[in-house]
Amino acid sequence: MSSVELLAIVLRHGNRQQSAYEIASALLGHFGSVRALLNASQERLCAVPGVGSARYAELQAAVELVRRHLEEALDRPEAFNTPQAASEFLRARLRDLPHEVFCCFYLDNRNRLICFEELFRGTVDGASVHPREVVRQALEHNAAAMIVAHNHPSGVAEPSHADEAITRRLRDALALVEVRLVDHLVVGDESYTSLAERGLL
How far is Cα 79 from Cα 73, in angstroms, rounded to an integer? Predict the structure, then answer.
């Protein structure tokens, strides 16, 4: 099925002037892509004829269902044996945010997930990461290991010098309480970088 057809199914019905298919076609034509459409603000979306606050809520609900579908994949015991395992989930969750988010995967001694949380939020320029708080949360969750990750709103997954520096600080701070830092993932638009694969861990 085409994107227009799928969107028409989500919209379910049209109005007196337009069918659901015509509204879906107009939306995709206006925004240029499914991704741009689903990331549009309520004000911009409702400016398109045939779309109101109820339609905006329906589309946001569809996006949230996809996010929750991805989160359920985190429950697989084998989820974190490789950096690629967490990257798809992280790209879907973080890539369109206008600000940086620093996330933590708390793992047991077999790298199985105990808990995932967004620990710090920042601006478009960076998130303020506090190693002491990361250590406190690791102990709170009784973690034996961790993967940390953050997004680059620019879409470029190349780590900065600051990213490399905080990775070393986190590694050393967590080592003091015998928690392994397995990896630090930097998430871009369509790619990611593993600082473990760069030899920093």
Answer: 8
Question: Alpha helix locations (H) across 73-160?
Answer: 83-94, 131-140
Q: How far is it, in rounded angstroms, from Cα 183 to Cα 81?
A: 11
Amino acid at 163: D
- Length of the chain equals 201
pLDDT over 60 (residue 7): yes
* Residue 94 scores a pLDDT above 80: no
Quick check: 124 pLDDT over 70? no
Cα separation, 184 vs 171, whole angstroms: 10
Is the full-model pTM beyond 0.85?
no
**Lateral strand order in the sheet of 145-151:** 113-121, 101-107, 145-151, 180-187, 192-194
Q: Which single residue is written with the structure tokens 């600082």?
A: 195
154 burial type by CB count under 10 A (0-12 exposed, 13-18 middle, 19+ buried): exposed
Question: pLDDT averaged over the chain?
Answer: 82
